[in-house]
């Protein structure tokens, strides 16, 4: 779906000085970011994390230049790894209890008529619209979503195609906000949001800086669970690691940066799998940026 761009892509050469708040970092470019990190890895064999260390290995620029946007990976994973990351993939009925969901049949009466509805009970969740002030970019996460890939397989099979062999693995990778389930006992949703920022994206943000925007009902037709949306601004002084999620929970998250002046083009690209929450979060960040609130 996405191809790797040349190291000196338009994004690599782009100096981030379009926003008034970028005056103090007007000499900063994605190409310099990439080169700095590459030299660190070459010299030490592993990345170190200090203020002004930017984690974008050279050549990790991905996106669709013809669509008007490009993304840079902050964790070094490239799209070409997709085909090697996914092994077996099969679907089967849920016959044992799940850690995360509970299927239920609801019987109710509406306007005197007996009705039935199937739902999936799940935990409430949090999501965070993240703005990286050092590079004037939104921080996204990219990960493999089995349900998305399975839905694509069903679509291919309905067309009479051999979905298992023809569907690229990249079809199951989606772009999303940093997010997670609010399933930790004794933690507020704000505290859960802060933990998710650290676990998934590698930034240790002060709790008071995690601002609640609103909450809303998600998956209305099947779950009805509540999601709380937060905003946080990060910079490299908060960097504690690469992020990537919790391996013990099966998470393998790639952290991406999207320049703020390319948000509209990214949202408009229907071929790029993304969540509705991400699109809303990006528009929220754009609104704050326009009003000089970041």
Automatic annotation (TrEMBL):
Catalytic activity entry: UDP-sugar + H2O = UMP + alpha-D-aldose 1-phosphate
Gene Ontology CC terms, in alphabetical order: cytoplasm
GO MF annotations in UniProt: metal ion binding; UDP-sugar diphosphatase activity
Chief location bin: cytoplasm
Keyword Transport on entry: no
Cofactors (names): Mg(2+)
Assigned EC number: 3.6.1.45
Region listing for Disordered, in residue ranges: 1-29
Gene Ontology BP annotations: nucleoside phosphate metabolic process; ribose phosphate metabolic process
Keywords on record: Cytoplasm, Hydrolase, Magnesium
Subunit composition and interactions: Homodimer.
Protein name per the record: Uridine diphosphate glucose pyrophosphatase NUDT14
